[in-house]
């Protein structure tokens, strides 16, 4: 328990509010995107989350880009898992939701830790989104689909592209937030 408290102590109230908002937005967008993704991916026999997962993973990358704190994506995934299990929303896999929603954040946090980035540039944001969506697609495949090798590789490839594009979208939003914060800071000084 001491390790958990020490981990959470590095997050300010502002950071925790951002984490809660990104988690809620990530879950709120699912009921809108799930039917659309079923229409697009049904004939291709690709799991729907592989294609639209990039839009789900935007919120993890965006949260880390705003807070700049390691572990943000993991916490967003954990809060999403708890929300999905508590509400029984679309995308719930029961207790396995803890694994399927938290793993993308863990993998992306570790990936950015290894390269020493914090969603500070376009390539690392692309990588974060890509890692999130690959992990999410792999976990959902493990829990639900159990695809053979060729469809699994196709699904993970689509997930990599979709997640990377989601990372780019998140980075562009983060850039706008940085510009707004800088402009607001300059107005207060002058």
TrEMBL record:
Keywords: Membrane, Transmembrane, Transmembrane helix. The keyword Lyase does not apply. Pfam families: ABC_cobalt (PF09819). The chain crosses the membrane at residues 12-33, 45-66, 73-92, 122-143, 149-174. It comes from the Bacteria. Coiled coil: none annotated. The keyword Lyase does not apply. This is ABC-type cobalt transport system, permease component. The lineage of its organism: Bacteria, Bacillati, Bacillota, Clostridia, Eubacteriales.
């Amino acid at each position: 328990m001491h390790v958990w408290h020490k981990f959470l102590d590095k997050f300010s109230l502002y950071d925790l509010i951002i984490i809660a908002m990104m988690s809620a937005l990530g879950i709120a967008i699912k009921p809108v995107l799930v039917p659309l993704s079923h229409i697009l991916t049904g004939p291709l026999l690709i799991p729907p989350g592989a294609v639209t997962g990039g839009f789900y993973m935007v919120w993890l990358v965006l949260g880390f880009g705003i807070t700049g704190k390691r572990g943000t994506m993991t916490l967003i995934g954990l809060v999403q898992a708890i929300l999905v299990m508590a509400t029984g929303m679309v995308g719930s896999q029961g207790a396995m939701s803890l694994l399927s929603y938290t793993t993308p954040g863990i993998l992306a946090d570790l990936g950015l830790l290894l390269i020493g980035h914090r969603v500070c540039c376009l390539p690392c944001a692309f990588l974060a989104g890509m890692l999130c969506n690959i992990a999410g697609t792999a976990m959902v495949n493990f829990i639900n689909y159990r695809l053979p090798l060729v469809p699994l590789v196709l699904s993970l490839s689509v997930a990599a592209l979709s997640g990377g594009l989601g990372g780019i979208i998140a980075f562009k939003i983060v850039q706008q937030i940085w510009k707004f914060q800088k402009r607001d800071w300059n107005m207060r000084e002058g």
